[in-house]
Design goal:
Elements lengths: L2 H24 L4 H6 L7 E6 L3 H10 L5 E6 L2 H10 L4 E5 L7 H10 L8 E5 L4 H9 L4 E4 L4 H14 L1
Parallel strand pairs: 1-2, 1-3, 3-4, 4-5
Length: 164
């Protein structure tokens, strides 16, 4: 996406958020309309890289009725196949992956030109401050501690997609 189109999309996203807030505040719209009230009907692709099938399915369920399409990979090899074939707008990466862990994958992505600006959420199964700091130092935009709250995950994903 070129810079002009990105800038325009960012503006549209900001306007859409303002519109949603105003409509919600005034109580004039049904909840489904509120969720769907946007100028940007383009589907966003979020890639979830997690070896745990239950986690991947839970994340898919959170976004099943939204403009966000969830792609899933249970390994780094699956991840590589998906990014070859699909545009990815955001990634959720578990730090406890086999072969190449989530920290290493985050670092590799940030070093690669095509993925320098793609938002990354690291999925962490504990709240060790060292791991959280390490993730941010390697270029992650956010983190989620498992088990995560669905609304918190949804908000982080939507906020990061609106900024990208």
């Amino acid at each position: 996406m070129n810079q002009k189109k990105k800038g325009l999309q960012s503006l549209v996203n900001k306007i859409s958020k303002l519109k949603k807030r105003t409509l919600a505040k005034e109580g004039l719209v049904h909840l489904d309309e509120y969720k769907n009230s946007t100028f940007n009907l383009e589907t966003k692709n979020v890639l979830v890289v997690d070896e745990d099938e239950e986690t991947r399915e839970k994340i898919k369920k959170v976004f099943e009725k939204s403009y966000i399409s969830i792609l899933t990979a249970e390994s780094v090899m699956d991840f590589a196949k998906i990014i070859e074939k699909s545009d990815v707008d955001l990634m959720i990466i578990d730090i406890r992956l086999s072969w190449v862990d989530g920290f290493e994958l985050c670092e590799l992505l940030r070093a690669h030109g095509a993925f320098k600006t793609v938002p990354i959420i690291l999925s962490i199964d504990h709240s060790y401050q060292e791991d959280i700091k390490k993730g941010f130092d390697l270029g992650a935009n956010a983190y989620m501690i498992k088990p995560f709250e669905e609304k918190e995950l949804q908000k982080k994903v939507e906020d990061l997609l609106a900024l990208s």
